[in-house]
Design a protein that fits this description.
globular; about 80 residues
Length: about 80
């Protein structure tokens, strides 16, 4: 997990869906008030199970700390927005 100014990056490559969810949940739960974005690096060549789980679990208002979700700079990343910058 890499932390930039206000952004947490989490590489989910090689994880099972349940492991990825646990890692994301921990990051959302433990994010300091200075964090406004969590960048999830899931890739796109090895299937879409993690990307689909992210959309299902965090894209429909199920997690109160996530304001919205955005596609990342490429199709292998997804951004969870915790607050507006």
């Amino acid at each position: 997990m890499a932390i930039q100014t206000g952004i947490i990056e989490i590489d989910l490559h090689g994880l099972r869906t349940e492991q990825a969810k646990a890692k994301i949940d921990a990051a959302v739960r433990n994010a300091s008030p200075s964090v406004y974005r969590i960048r999830l690096i899931h890739g796109y060549h090895g299937g879409t199970a993690i990307r689909d789980m992210i959309e299902e679990e965090y894209g429909y208002g199920r997690e109160p700390k996530v304001v919205r979700m955005e596609p990342g700079a490429n199709q292998g990343t997804t951004e969870l927005i915790l607050r507006e910058y």
